[in-house]
User: Fold this.
Amino acid sequence: MKHRRTIQLFLISAISSLLMIPSLSFAAEKPDFTGQWTLNESKSELGESQGFAAKKLAVKQEGNTLTIERTRTGRDGEERTSSETLTMDGKENVDEGENRTTTSVVTWSEDGTTLTIKSKREFTRNGEDFVMNSTEVWTLADEGKTLKIKNDSTSSRGDRSATLVYEKQ
Assistant:
C-alpha cells in the first residue's frame, strides 16, 4: 500500500512538472528596445545602404507601442530626424505625410526574441511615383547593450541589404 502511494505521488509530481514547462516558456519577457542608440559603422555591414542608415536611434517601447526617432545625415550634411509610432500587434500602422504614405506591420517572432517591422513606402519625387518595401528584424545582444537590425529593401532602384549594429548610450 505504501509503495502504491509513493508511485501515485511520483506520477502527480511528474505530471505537474510537465504542465509547468509551457507556462515557464511563456513567462519569458520580450526584449525592451528602449534607449538611445548610436550606429557603430565598423561593426555594421552597410553595403549600398550607407547613406540611408540612421546614425542615431531614440527608441521608446511602452506596452504595445514602439516609438522610433531616426536621425540621419542629409546630403547637405545637416542632421534630419524622422519619427514613427507603431503598434506591435500585427495590425497595419499607416503614416501619411506630404507626398508619401508608409504602411507598417510589426510582429514578434514565435519565441518572442526578435521584432520584425515590414513597411511599404509610397512616395512621389519630382513628379514620379516610387514604392519601396522593407523588412527590418530587430534583435538585442550583449545583455541589451547592442541592437542589431537586419534590413532588406526592394524598390525600382534595386535590392539592398544591410546589417546595422547600434550601441546603447
User: Anything to note?
Assistant: Confidence is low (pLDDT under 50) at residues 18-27. The two ends are 65 Å apart (CA to CA). Residues 2-27 form the longest helix (26 residues).
